[in-house]
Amino acid sequence: MQSQYVILWNIFVTNGSASSVGFVLH
Description:
By secondary structure, the chain is mainly α. Helix content is about 75%, strand content about 0%. The radius of gyration is 9 Å and the shape is flat. Keywords: Membrane, Transmembrane, Transmembrane helix.
């Protein structure tokens, strides 16, 4: 279920754009 989330997360992390967003979501 969270497989897609992990994939999307990896893409975002790679981009470095979700750096701040990642912190909020995490």
